[in-house]
Amino acid sequence: MSASAKNEPSEATGQPLSMPIDNPAFPVSPITFGARYGLTVITQAELELLQQLLPLPLSAVGNKLIIQFNFNTITSPIQVDYPNVTVIVPAVFGDQAGLYFARVYEGSAQATMLSIWGREIWGFPKVAADVEVIRHSSSGTARMVCANGIAKANVLVEFTDTPAFEKPQSDLSVFCRKIIPRSDGQGNHIDQLVLAPILNTRERHVAARIIQCDFQLDLGGKQRTVPVDKDATAFWYDQDPGLVLNLGRDIHDYLAK
Residues 49-97: pLDDT tens digits? Predict the structure, then answer.
């Protein structure tokens, strides 16, 4: 199935699929965000863990694991505010580099809708969760409890005296595994690896020192503790409005014969 294919009926029911086949990001493209903020932790992880988080044929780049606690605002094509936690692995596919979103734990009353988007379009394990990220005067806190009771996080950081750093606009490439299950439950209608662009905006970073970072993710239905050293990189970010998710392109078809 090429990226140019249009919305087609389900083989089992004859009804249209729940989103355009040609959109690897969200039901309607482009998606525009308002101001965003959150807490980022970048730690070193075992290569074995990173490879378990990545689908073949992706390979990890280095040994970094990025954990982000975000508060997002979508301004178009719908209006919605929601927090989430993303687990990200820098990866490569041949000579193409990008960020693979290995897990997304979605908060807010819209979690069910957002989880459907993630399951059917982005494809990564996107699960409803109780998520909170708060900036205090001299510290930041974040917590997450996943609905499945397996993944959990509790983070406390203190801001350092380092002056805030302004990160200029820098676009990103994101790998996503777009999975659309068959309505009869017999496998998948679409299973593709997609490389999608994110038109990024300027960010302001405030450096932080980790006081506490407990993080457990779900891996194969079991809880896996991710050790985070207190010397790991941590910062609070505030992002300008205008981040845009656009259409991507299919780069690997898992259903190809």
Answer: 999 999 999 999 999 999 999 999 888 877 888 899 999 999 999 999 9
Give the predicted TM-score (pTM) of the model.
Answer: 0.85
Query: pLDDT by residue (tens digit) across 198-243?
Result: 889 999 999 999 999 999 998 888 999 999 988 999 999 999 999 9
Domain residues for the domain of 234 are 31-253
Long-range contacts of 133-136 (CB under 8 A, 24+ apart): 133/37, 133/38, 133/39, 133/69, 133/70, 133/71, 133/83, 135/37, 135/236
Asked if the model's pLDDT at residue 124 lies above 90, the reply is no
Write the DSSP string, the chain: --TT----B-TTT-SBPSS-TT-SSSSSS-EEE--EEEEEEEEE--HHHHHHHSPTT-EE-TTEEEEEEEEEEEEESS-EEEEEEEEEEEEEETTEEEEEEEEEEE-STTHHHHHHHIIIII-S-EEEEEEEEEE-SSEEEEEEEETTSS-EEEEEEEE-SSPPEEEPP--EEEEEEEEEE-TTSSSEEEEEEEEEEEE---EEEEEEEEEEEEEEEEETTEEEE----TTSEEEEEEE-S--EE---EEEEETT--
Residue 238 lies in a domain: yes
- The CATH number for 75's domain is 2.40.400.10
Asked, for residue 16, whether it belongs to a domain, the answer is no
Question: How many domains does one find in the chain?
Answer: 1
Which residue bears the tokens 């017999």?
A: 186
